[in-house]
Amino acid sequence: MTAKKAAETRRTSIGAQRNPDSQDAILRAAEEILVEGGLGSFSIEAVARRAHAGKPTIYRWWPTRAILLLDVYHRQKYVDIAPDTGTIETDIFQLLSGLLEFWSAGHGGAVFRSVIAEAQTDPAAGKAIAAYMADRYQQGGEIFRRAKARGEVADWVAPELAMEIITSFAWKRLLTDRLDITPEELRLVVRHLVEGFKVQ
Amino acid sequence: MTAKKAAETRRTSIGAQRNPDSQDAILRAAEEILVEGGLGSFSIEAVARRAHAGKPTIYRWWPTRAILLLDVYHRQKYVDIAPDTGTIETDIFQLLSGLLEFWSAGHGGAVFRSVIAEAQTDPAAGKAIAAYMADRYQQGGEIFRRAKARGEVADWVAPELAMEIITSFAWKRLLTDRLDITPEELRLVVRHLVEGFKVQ
């Protein structure tokens, strides 16, 4: 379930009336603020002002700043989580390099770091991230389902778990400020994942 | 370089006189506060009070709360980062299960989550974590150096990078609140790492 779907479920469950127009206006305003001023200028107050919405309206849909940030991040995200290059090596290489580059350029990395940081003290944001990640593992698992059909990947490999291992590496690089990986180093990372540590 | 060593270097470079007794008293006081009251009760002020130290003294050695927390965490840590069980599978299994259990029990997990979260907005804490992790990769890389000597691990495997991949998975489980892994699931994680995704 994506953060957006989670937010929809939440809305439905509390019986609030959805209003797609102003929901979109709020997300657009939030995105503009981020693009123009970065994370430092991002607050529920600033978003309310720009979207001509009341703060209670925003809080009804996005209970915390982190949850709103995650939805904005999710909208912006254009990284292909399941590239189809024909081999498992290059699929994983493209996925990881796309992710690390997206986080390096623009505000994507700063926003996601901030959402992860805030989720450590905000259980609702923690749940939203977990739902978002489960959704991404499911989508990205397509890489492994295709590679199994080609006979390239072992039957016992669990597509979602494999995706979790791959994206964990990317998270740690983001959170320790080490996104500047060379193609050679990234190829070596992929080789560890694809061939395993053990001698064949 | 560990956070502690980083702190020592910092002290030397600013020419401050080290005083191991009161440094230890401060770390002991910080640890007691954490054990007794958890993260919520942890502040530089509370540590100063309990250690009978001045706040400026603490700030001279540990410029931010996150850096002090990382040093306390480092002192408490009793997880064996390089278990020597005789096979690479069980070494990695023990390392990961030890880490996830340490984070689940007591305050270790909450403290480390908090340090990682604060490091996202505190560059000095980010540097301290990066130094701490580099030190851990170096120590834990021993698993791979031993396994290579046994002919169990391929020559091209990079011990520090392999340790980074392994601990990244543990970090993500911590940060997404999913430490409750079953032994079966953990064995499957280890199999992915050791055998690789690709059919042999």
Automatic annotation (TrEMBL), chains A, B:
Residues 20-80 form the HTH tetR-type domain. It holds the Pfam family TetR_N. The keyword DNA-binding applies. Residues 1-11 have a biased composition (Basic and acidic residues). Keywords: DNA-binding, Transcription, Transcription regulation. GO terms for molecular function: DNA-binding transcription factor activity; transcription cis-regulatory region binding. Residues 43-62 bind DNA. InterPro entries: Homeodomain-like_sf, HTH-type_TetR-like_transc_reg, HTH_TetR, Tet_transcr_reg_TetR-rel_C_sf, TetR_C. Residues 1-21 are annotated as: Disordered. The keyword Cell division does not apply. Residues 12-21 have a biased composition (Polar residues). PANTHER family: HTH-TYPE TRANSCRIPTIONAL REGULATOR RUTR, TETR-FAMILY TRANSCRIPTIONAL REGULATOR. This is 2, 4-DAPG biosynthesis transcriptional repressor PhlF.
